[in-house]
Amino acid sequence: MPLHPLTPHPLTPPMPIDLSLIHHNPNRDPNQRDPASRATRHSVDLSVNPRSLFNTVSDRANLGQAILNRLHTHQGALAELGHPDYGSRLHELVGELNNDRTRRLAELYIRQCLAQEVRIAEVVAVVFAPPTLAGRSTLAAQVSLRPVDDLTAMVLDLTLTL
Predict the structure, then answer these.
(1) Which class for 21: exposed (0-12), middle (13-18), buried (19 or more C-beta within 10 A)?
(2) pLDDT per residue over 131-156, tens digit each?
(3) How do residues 6-21 score in pLDDT, each as one tens digit?
């Protein structure tokens, strides 16, 4: 039986993750999935359900995906499409040491990137975990932000491999 087109081949190694994002929702039971949201035309993105089919996501889940997309995209990569400022400069930190200078630059790049997103009212804090010997080439940050028209803050854990 052929594999579903979205299913990775069993012999294909997983792609390395150079930037990951986790959204913490303190009001949700971690053992339950978020209820399906009704998507609107202006805030739709995709998620994969257990059967490897696509579902739409909206609201906070959509904002989380938009943030990840912005942080993953090299600033200027979409210039030919009319979006010269879209993206981040985090890729410029690859190969740098995990030191105070790099963490300050990462915070600056994260704040500059998230300032582009009109659905974010405020980036409240960007806090980095102290470097460890085992994770010298990894920056771990917790980003707290307040979405527009939402009193509940979003807390995102970002991991950047240097």
Answers:
(1) middle
(2) 887 778 889 999 999 999 888 999 98
(3) 444 444 444 333 444 4
Instruction: Name which of 137, 43, 73 is nearest 99 in CA terms.
Output: 137
**What CA–CA distance (Å, rounded) separates 148 from 126?**
18
Written in H, E and C, the secondary structure of the chain is: CCCCCCCCCCCCCCCCCCEEEEEECCCCCCCCCCCCCCCCCCCCEEEECCCCCEEEECHHHHHHHHHHHHHHCECCCCHHHCCCCCCECHHHHCCCCCCHHHHHHHHHHHHHHHHCCCCEEEEEEEEECCCCCCCCCEEEEEEEEEECCCCCCEEEEEEEEC
